[in-house]
What does this fold into?
Amino acid sequence: MVEGSMRWKECTKIAYTFAEETRKLHFGALTPGYDLMTKLRSSIDSILPPNAHEIAENRLFVSVTSAKNGKNHLLSNFASREDLVKALLASSFIPLYAGINAMDYKGEKWIDGGLTNGLPILPVGRTVTVSPFCGRLDICPHDKGRIDAYVKVAKQDLMLSVTNFVRLHQALFPPCQKKMESLYQDGYDDAVHFLLKENWFE
It folds into this structure.
C-alpha cells in the first residue's frame, strides 16, 4: 500500500514536470528540437520495477496501431522489461506531435493505439472504461447541453461539444498546474461517483 502510494506520487510529479516543461516552449511538445519520446522513456524507466514485464504479463493490455496497415493490436505478453517499455512507448506515439518516425517494436513500426481503439473492451470479465472526454463511458466528465450529439472516435462514443475540444487542446498543450490539479480532482470525483453507483465500495 505504501509502495503504491509512493509510485502514485511519483507519477503525478512526473506529469506536472512534463507539463511545466512543455509550457515553457513556444509550441509546446511541437517545438523543433524537443524530443518528447526520449523524455517519456526516461520517465518510464524511473517508475517501472525490474520485473515489471512479469507483473504485467496477461494483466496489462497495451493498445497499439500498425503504421503499415492501420490495424489495431493488443499486446499483453512481454519478453522482458525492455520489451514492455518499447510497447508503452509505441502506444504513446502520436504522429507529428511526438515525432515523425513511428516507434520500432519487434521489427515493425507502431503508433498510438488510441487512434484506432482508445478503450479496448476485453473479452473476459467487465471492462471499466475511463476517459478524460465526455461520452458514453463508465468514468468520464459529464457535460450538460441542449442536444446530446455524439461522434464515434477510435471506437469511443464521445459527445460533440466545445468543452471536449477544449479538453483535447489541454491534453496536447497542458494548462497551468492549478488547472491540472482541478482536473485531477474532477477525475477522482467521477471515479468515486461510479464506484458508489455500482456499489463497489466495501
Summary: The first helix runs from residue 2 to 23. The first strand starts at residue 62 and ends at 66. The CA atoms of residues 63 and 173 lie 23 Å apart. The mean pLDDT is 92.
